[in-house]
Design brief:
Layout lengths: L11 H11 L3 E5 L4 H16 L3 E5 L12 H8 L5 E4 L7 H9 L3 E5 L14 E2 L14 H15 L6 H7 L1 H13 L6 H7 L4 H5 L2 H4 L7 H6 L9 H8 L3 H29 L10 E9 H15 L3 E7 L2 E7 L7 H6 L5 E6 L3 E6 L1 H15 L4
Parallel strand pairs: 1-2, 1-3, 3-4, 4-5, 6-7
Antiparallel strand pairs: 7-8, 8-10, 9-10
Bound molecules: manganese (II) ion.
Length: 379
């Protein structure tokens, strides 16, 4: 169990957020379209429902709207009968739009775990580990933040007497937080470890998942594939509104075949790539025009584990090419290695064990030659 006490909620933001919710009639939960964002949305919606609050949700479509607060949709909701916005897993950087919402005489509570914009908008509570005092909350995912906020609210609204009752009040919420925590790949500390114990509970709460043979490895794919279409998100509709069973089943079957096709493609590409031998190379650099960028990272990581060498795989990325480089070793640094070639790239980034870059078709051949001359020359 995740043990928290009043000292963990000492920051004024909690109290202010509670007062706003207490005085709100119509709340909009503003989420994000990845596994962490969707589970966060669900946790807060379910909690507000328990508190007897009228709550709707909006999850921007990453492709059509963007990420976080987006002006067009903020303007749309400002015209509607909503008195409070609660963002989950997003918006810490949307300083101007938060201000705009405040200026329109509406309330906003920002809950998030991303690095915030340098200053807070005045009189807006931020439930974000970067601003909170409790060290226990340091590495929370967006859904972890939603969970601890929910624990706090249940006690404040006197639905429960103490935090241990609060924790077990809605076990579905803990499992949702575990999924968000797992899929967002946050650092596993004691708090996150406690949350992750409830990961498998999700199969009990959503029986269709077992029925369709989803398991721990494919679960993130389900949540990440739930896309918002005309304001509706299949997972949120099914779990929160409980009236979407047939469409949800169809959605899950769609995800299933998507994941299977992806796996088949990976196997096919691996076979093709491994027709070449990589015995001599110290650093494996592979350029494949025919492989789409969305497969590159996974392939690169499989190959680097298999050959126990640094691997960089380049595939097609729109008009350009994209490279993903992997190696799980403390003795090697991909980011530093890519820095040596940065003049070739349109952009690059990442960290020691996993880094990537984008390069134009004009530069790609020269880069491959230069790279191999430097690291794989036979002399
Ligand atoms: Mn997140």
């Amino acid at each position: 169990m995740l043990e928290v006490n009043d000292r963990d909620f000492i920051d004024r933001d909690f109290k202010e957020a509670f007062l706003i919710i207490k005085n709100s009639k119509n709340i909009l939960v503003w989420g994000d379209e990845d596994a962490d964002g969707i589970t966060s949305t669900l946790i807060i919606l379910r909690t507000l429902n328990t508190l007897g609050k009228n709550a709707k949700y909006f999850i921007p479509s990453r492709i059509n709207d963007g990420i976080g607060l987006v002006e067009k949709k903020v303007d749309l909701f400002l015209k509607k009968d909503i008195d409070t916005f609660i963002t989950v897993d997003c918006a810490s950087v949307n300083y101007e739009l938060i201000k705009k919402i405040k200026l329109s005489k509406k309330n906003i509570i920002v809950t998030d775990h991303h690095i915030p914009y340098k200053k807070k908008v005045e009189k807006v509570p931020y439930i974000n580990p970067y601003f909170l005092s409790s060290k226990k909350f340091k590495n929370l995912s967006g859904s972890g933040v939603s969970l601890i906020f929910s624990l706090y609210l249940l006690k404040k609204f006197k639905i429960v007497k103490d935090y241990s009752q609060s924790f077990f009040y809605d076990p579905f919420n803990i499992s949702l937080a575990a999924v968000g925590t797992q899929c967002d790949k946050v650092k596993i500390d004691r708090t996150n470890d406690e949350i992750l114990k409830y990961y498998n509970g999700i199969f009990y709460h959503i029986p269709y998942l077992k029925e369709l043979d989803f398991n721990e490895n494919t679960l993130c794919g389900v949540f990440a594939n739930s896309k918002t279409v005309s304001f509706k998100n299949p997972l949120v509709e099914y779990i929160f509104k409980e009236n979407y069973k047939k469409s949800f089943y169809i959605f899950l079957k769609g995800v299933k075949s998507k994941i299977e096709n992806y796996r088949k493609k990976i196997e096919k590409y691996l076979k093709e790539i491994e027709k070449d031998s990589f015995e001599k190379e110290k650093f494996i650099l592979i350029f494949r025009k025919d492989i789409d960028y969305k497969y590159i990272g996974v392939l690169s990581s499989i190959l680097s584990k298999k050959y126990n060498k640094p691997v960089c795989l380049i595939g097609k990325k729109g008009k350009n090419f994209g490279g993903e480089c992997r190696f799980e070793s403390e003795k090697f640094n991909w980011l530093d290695t890519l820095k040596l070639f940065q003049n070739y790239f349109v952009g690059f980034g990442g960290h020691k064990k996993a880094a990537g870059f984008e390069i134009t078709s004009e530069k790609i051949y020269e880069f491959v030659t230069q790279f191999n001359n430097r690291f794989n020359s036979s002399k």
